[in-house]
Amino acid sequence: MDPLLSIRELTLKGRGNDAWVTLLDKIDLDLRRGEVLGLIGESGAGKSTLGLAAMGYTRTGCRITEGSVMFDGMQLVGAPRKALLALRGTRIAYVAQSAAASFNPAHQLVHQFAETPVQRGIMDFDAARQKAERLYRRLQLPRPERIGFRYPHQVSGGQLQRAMVAMAMACDPDIIVFDEPTTALDVTTQIEVLSAIKEAIQLRQTAALYITHDLAVVAQVADRIMVLQHGRQVEEGGTRDLIDAPKESYTRDLLNVRRQKKTTISPSREVVLEVTGVTAGYTKRKNVVEEISLKVRKGRTVAVVGESGSGKTSLARVITGLLPAAQGQISFDGAVLAPSLKGRSKETLRRLRMVYQMPDVALNPRQKIRRILGRPLEFFFHMDAQAKQRKVLELLDMIEMGPEFYDRYPSELSGGQKQRICIARALASQPDLIICDEVTSALDQLVAEGILKLLQRLQDQLGVSYLFITHDLATVKAIADEVIVMLKGRIVEQGPRDEMFIPPHHDYTRRLFRSVPEMDPAWLDNLLASRDGDQLGYFERSDEPVV
Amino acid sequence: MDSLKKMVVKRLAAGAVTVLVVSILIFVGVEALPGDPATAILGQQATPENLAALRKELKLDMPPHVRYFSWVSDVARGDLGRSLTNQRPVAEMIGWRFSNTLFLALAAATVAVPLAILLGMLAALYRESWLDKLLSISSLSAISFPEFFVGYILIAIFAVKLGILPGVASIHSGMGFGQKLLAIVLPTITLMLVVLAHMMRMTRAAIIGILTSPYIEMAKLKGVGRRRIIYHHAIPNALAPIINVVIMDLAWLVVGVVVVEVVFVYPGLGQLLVDAVSKRDLPVVQASGLIFACTYILLNLTADVLSILTNPKLRTAN
Description:
The structure holds 2 protein chains of 2 kinds. Chain A is α/β, with parallel strands linked by helices. Chain A is built from 22 helices and 20 strands. Chain A is 37% helix and 23% strand. A 6-stranded mixed β-sheet of chain A has the order 6-7-8-3-9-10, with helices on both faces. In chain A, helix 7 (157-168) runs parallel beside helix 8 (187-204), helix 15 crosses helix 16 and helix 15 packs parallel to helix 17.
């Protein structure tokens, strides 16, 4: 049987500052009916570009310079616009990364579902509405008969993502391109969307291109996996073969990235930070964190895990005094701190520092690295120009960056390098505690791994403590000594890391830990199979009910 | 809808405060005008005794804050006072002229708003094409000319050279609707040219800003055609900025027409205001200022309410 989609020697270039940059370099790809091909790689690998090119679509500023895209006997490269429009939405459909951004905020879900089928005259609105309802039910959306009449902002992220999968299936396409469909979701929500996608694909033997940066995720749905790096094909193979016996070293790196684990050490005695019964909120009526008590010991790392909206970042803001606590007490090295930043001494500010999730926005784009790192030295230690220069170079050395970065602007740095600069800036004041707020979430996995290793090395060298906020349990394994699990502003469980990975657990912790995809193609199926016998209500909807 | 009602009430209250502040500014501004109303009325030859008597009669001899409070309390009771120059009630003088100003503004808006939005959509749809460039160049030139210049050029061409349209837009109550319309063709075109460009460019910018959104790419990948993307996917989300610009321009059409009314000798509120300032007719100046301020505030409130109604997120919030 001829493949449904056949891409040969596809080369695609994008307009850079003044030259054409190669985004895809001679890619070959075949996709048969009912087959799922996983496309995997880090950012800049060209996964999305390839997924879009499979639909005959290139983003503004890009063009296909070579090669062919054959879909069911039709050449898509250079095909007339009308012919491509007729194909999209009906025979090839697309599921975007962020459903929240990709649904039009001005229209109700079912109208967006019905747009393609009604516009093409495939069915009338009523039939489309009924089909939407059937698919919504199939994908386990709550109140399938009503949810279509909601606007996107009225539906949670996980539900929206499932609604988008339903929308892609409106015209029973031959191929669906999934572009990082679960990346923006919490792990517990990711499971639901993943199982919905699996269900959707099996329902009609739809072929799919599944794009993601997460090997463990793609292993659950794909028959074959293709690894991309810098627009080039690194390796392709059957899912199990590729995971069990990768041929290329890059693939091995990707596979190993989530297996890093911190060695267990005995707890030190000294407590640096102690939070007791802290409650705080942005308004008087609603608290975002409630009755939080925790300890961070010298030279140790406490990881705070939880889903988005669980109050992790708010807790960091309370500790730093950006959000003054309404109740409770925060003491640092034995001394009680003022709840508000304004009431704290410069010395406290020096000893308690923070590193943020997005290095792009945390660095002033108009300041050179020497100024960014020099500022705290001047502010806290009143260093003169010479001492400052020496110290900045020393800091750069500590974060494994050379003196050539001294005079550069943040825009000349990669994401990982920028995050290193942020860490160096926090280190400049020789703090006792650094609060790291999702510092690796915006980075590619291999880069994130480097950052985690750096943080660990710095801790071993300097004895600095970390309060490490993350939603990623692999990161927890890699860095934490102790773990705190948060849910809805409260701590549901806390303890040494090794104990946290052993049952029994609070229901939520159990659900959270079991939701992390494992590098085993059978993991999702096993988990889904066990769901009926799950007494703890594993699959209880975490999403808010639909009114 | 409750939150909307609350917002309207809040805004009206804020508007009332604004009007009060504006009334102080107007009063102070008028006080700061050089010259003396009594001299302006009686002329340079008047004897000091006559002037003093007139001042007393007009209560100009009282301290400013007393006059301010008596004026404000009169206005609050609905009494705008009497003109200093001809003793007629200000309300009567202003009423007819204000309706003329509204008539002119409405005529200009009726043509300009739909045309501007249509042209803005076309410019966005065919952006970077010759049509877009033509619209962009002509609208920029239209903005660049001051409105009195445009007005005089139009008069020179259509009234003086060709003689097909009246150059003076003097309308009066005896005229029929058609006659009135014909009389205001040239001032309407002048006003239109000024606001059209502004609204069109904002419409274009608002739509193009939205065209880079992920949901527009999604629509393209669903196989939606270019036109439908503009009117079905982009416009509903671009309405809020467009409405704001349209309303700002409507407000300008009402309060900013002074120059155009003078050029075309149109009996509107702007013309009256200019006359009243030159004659130091304080009650008329103050009343006109207040009316302009209220118009502005009410139109802005309308813009906010309409923006909320077009945004499902705000509309469905309870």
